[in-house]
Specification:
The structure is a single chain. 28% of the residues lie in helices and 29% in strands. The chain is of the alpha/beta class. The chain has a single domain, classed as 2-enoyl-CoA Hydratase, Chain A, domain 1 (Alpha-Beta Complex). Strands 2-3-4-6-10 form a five-stranded mixed sheet. It has a four-stranded antiparallel sheet with strand order 5-1-12-13. Strands 9-11-14 form a three-stranded mixed sheet.
C-alpha cells in the first residue's frame, strides 16, 4: 500500500488552498509529548514526520492534526508511518483557553486528512472539531505543471481510487462504507460527518463518538473550575 502511484495522475482530496503542512513538537504538562500538524498535505509528508519523530527521541505518541486535506497518496503514506510507529491521532488545533494559556481546541479534518486520522492506533477529536469527506479530484501532473482532465477521464480515475481507499480503510480498522459516503459527495463540497457516523464508521475508537480531552493534567483555577492546559 505504501508509495501509491497513479502513473502521472495525482488524486487530490482537498478543500481549497491552504499553507503546506507544518510539524512541531508539543510538550504537555504531564511530561508527555505530541506532534502538532497543521496545514495542507503535500508530498513527502511521511519522511518529514519521521524526522520529527526522531527529533522527539521516541517520546511523541500522539499526532494532533488540523488540515483541509491535500494529496491522497501522500496522506496514505503518512498514515502507514503513523501506524508503524503506533501513534494515536487527535483532530484539534492549538489555541488559548479563557485564562490566556495554551490549550488544545477544535480543529478540522477534511478530505485526505481523514486518511491520516484513521491511521491512529487510537482516534479521537476535540470538542467542536469538524471531520468531513468528499470524492477525490484528479489532475495530470507533467513537467511540474498540472492539467485538468475531461469529465469522462476524471470519473474513470476517481472510480479507480475506490478499491485502494477501501483496502486502506479496512487495514486501519475503519468501515469501507466511509469511502462510499465520500465518493457520493462531489469534490466541490464537503460532507461533514455526525458524531454517530464517526462512531459507526470507526473513525473514533470507542463505542460512541467520544472526544479527546486536552492531554495535559487537569488543574483547578482560582475559581475552582478545571482547565486543561498545555505546557
Amino acid at each position: 500500500m505504501r508509495n501509491v502511484a497513479f502513473l502521472g495522475i495525482a488524486a487530490a482530496l482537498a478543500a481549497g488552498p491552504a499553507q503546506a503542512m507544518t510539524y512541531s513538537l508539543l510538550p504537555f504538562q504531564d511530561g508527555t509529548m505530541g506532534i502538532l500538524a497543521q496545514g495542507r498535505i503535500e508530498g513527502n509528508e511521511s519522511a518529514r514526520l519521521a524526522s520529527v519523530l526522531q527529533q522527539a527521541g521516541g517520546a511523541a505518541r500522539m499526532l494532533v492534526i488540523s488540515s483541509p486535506g491535500g494529496d491522497m497518496a501522500s496522506a496514505i503514506d503518512l498514515g502507514q508511518t503513523l501506524r508503524q510507529y503506533g501513534i494515536q491521532t487527535v483532530v484539534g488545533a492549538l489555541g488559548q483557553d479563557a485564562y490566556g494559556q495554551r490549550a488544545l481546541g477544535a480543529g478540522r479534518c477534511h478530505s485526505a486528512c481523514v486518511l491520516v486520522l484513521m491511521a491512529g492506533v487510537q482516534r479521537s477529536i476535540m470538542p467542536g472539531s469538524r471531520v468531513g469527506v468528499h470524492a477525490p479530484s484528479v489532475v495530470m501532473v507533467q513537467g511540474g505543471r498540472t492539467y485538468a482532465l475531461d469529465d469522462a477521464t476524471t470519473r474513470y480515475m476517481v472510480q479507480g481510487t475506490e478499491p485502494v481507499l477501501r483496502s486502506y480503510a479496512r487495514q486501519m480498522g475503519v468501515s469501507p462504507q466511509l469511502i462510499d459516503v465520500a465518493h457520493r459527495t462531489p469534490h466541490t463540497s464537503i460532507r461533514t460527518l455526525t458524531g454517530s457516523e464517526l462512531a459507526r464508521f470507526g473513525l473514533v475508537t470507542s463505542g460512541r463518538a467520544s472526544f479527546a480531552k486536552s492531554p495535559g493534567p487537569r488543574k483547578r483555577s482560582a475559581t475552582g473550575r478545571r482547565a486543561n492546559r498545555l505546557g
